[in-house]
Amino acid sequence: MTTTLTKGPFKADHVGSFLRPERIKQARLQVENGEMTKKQLRAIEDEEIRKLVEKQKQIGLKAVTDGEFRRAWWHFDFLSELVGVELYEAETGIQFHGVQTKAHGIKVTGKLDFNHHPMIEDYKFLHQAAGKEHVAKFTIPSPNMLFFRGHIEESAYSDTDVFFADLVKTYQKAIQAFYDAGCRYLQLDDTAWAVFFSEKGQEQIASKGFTPQELLKRFTDAINESIAHKPDDMVITMHICRGNFQSTYTASGGYENASKAIFSQLNVDGLFLEFDDERSGGFEPLRHVKRDDLQIVLGLITSKFGDLEDPEALKKRIAEAAEFVSLDQICLSPQCGFASTEEGNLLTEEQQWDKVKHVISISEDVWK
After folding, report:
1. Looking at residue 100, what is its pLDDT?
2. What is the DSSP string of 7-57?
3. Average pLDDT by consecutive 10-residue portion of the chain (368 residues)?
4. Residue 273, SS3 per DSSP
5. Which residue spans adopt a coiled-coil conformation according to this UniProt entry (predicted)?
6. Which of 152, 188, 265, 305 has CB 3.0 to 4.6 Å from 238, enough for a Cys bridge?
7. Residue 179 C-alpha from the chain's centroid
8. How high is the pLDDT of residue 318?
9. Between vectors from CA 360 to CA 286 and to CA 306, what angle results, nearest 5°?
10. What are phi and psi of 273, to 5 degrees?
């Protein structure tokens, strides 16, 4: 008998971001050019988010997000609003496969803290729009992303232990603040784990002065300590990503090198995992799942391109994964969001919704 999930992750779920409507893109440009106020922009975002939430409900999703419509980046917008962190103009952007992002970065300039963060209000708006019949899911970058993507100024933190201790306290406060605002389904998005998957990543680890085992412990502890005091009725999941910018990626490689830490040691309620192509490796690392309450969300459907995958092939892959972890613990989603940055992936809105409907249709067949 299949367990009915009522809090998330759901058998048919999604990572969070959706393609930005042209109306929002134009309004942002108008704000930049001084032709519109931020208050007017927010009113437009409010309208578009309400429409997005209704669309998610209409097609059958149980968890609804705001599509990250108010953000330019999936991570920098949240991190730069933490106390002690600043967004700055960098010399170069983040290099993806054949394309580079805007030249922005974040730096830690002072003692970290969480206080008066604007995304609490963003969540409250989503919570109201979701209503009582659907779960409002909110996404934030994992604490590891500040260490991985941020420049930590010596004047702020000369000691890595002290930095991570303050980072954990900051996230503990953030999680409690979202809970107090009504959030019961929070997702930590994290591309930092990808450094363990490839040879290029091993070089990045060494450049930060760690061995792979040392950094694995840091990342695992940062997640577990950050969520250690979460209330029992709050679900916290993590999405492990290999990069998603205009339908390209940054990293390749299977989960094996970090599989024990990810599947046996993390205390999250669910893991959203990329498995949409050969870059992600096989399902064998799932043998390290030791908990029957850990939900494994297989990202078998790509959000990068519009072509729909063969349903029977996807069902076969779910069956293959079920050789390593109970089918009852498996869920289905796209491998990532559709717009990790405001530029979005290279598919149409119609194709985006066809992808989500594909997830729902297949999950209804598999978990009857």
Report:
1. 47
2. SSS-SB---S--PPPHHHHHHHHHHHTTSS-HHHHHHHHHHHHHHHHHHHH
3. 65 96 95 95 98 98 97 90 91 50 80 97 98 97 92 95 98 98 97 85 84 95 98 96 56 82 98 82 94 97 92 97 98 93 83 97 96
4. strand
5. none
6. 188
7. 18
8. 98
9. 90
10. -120, 135
Residue 91, pLDDT score? 59
CATH no., domain 22-366: 3.20.20.210
How is the beta sheet containing 83-89 ordered, strand by strand? Answer: 83-89, 104-113, 150-152
Name the DSSP class of 341.
B
Q: Which of 142, 121, 161 is nearest to 272 (CA)?
A: 142
Using DSSP bridges, classify how beta strands 135-141 and 83-89 pair: parallel, antiparallel or unpaired. unpaired
- Residue 225 has, within 13 A of its CA and on its CB side, a CA count of 15
Residue from 239, 342, 227, 340 nearest 297 by CA: 239
- Residue type (1 letter), 321: A
Neighbouring residues of 102: CB distance < 8 A, sequence distance ≥ 6: 93, 341
C-alpha dihedral, 88 to 89 to 90 to 95, nearest 10°: 100
> Which distant-in-sequence residues (6+ apart) come within 8 Å of 227 by Cβ?
171, 175, 236, 267, 268
Between CA 217 and CA 220 the distance in angstroms is 5
In the chain, the amino acid numbered 295 is Q
Q: Give the single-character DSSP code of 182.
A: T
Query: Rounded to an integer, what distance in angstroms lies between the CA atom of residue 211 and that of residue 323?
Result: 32
Residue (of 36, 119, 137, 48) closest to 79 by Cα position: 119
Identify the three-state secondary structure at position 292. Answer: coil
- The conformation of residue 140, written as its DSSP 8-state character, comes to E
pLDDT at 111: 98
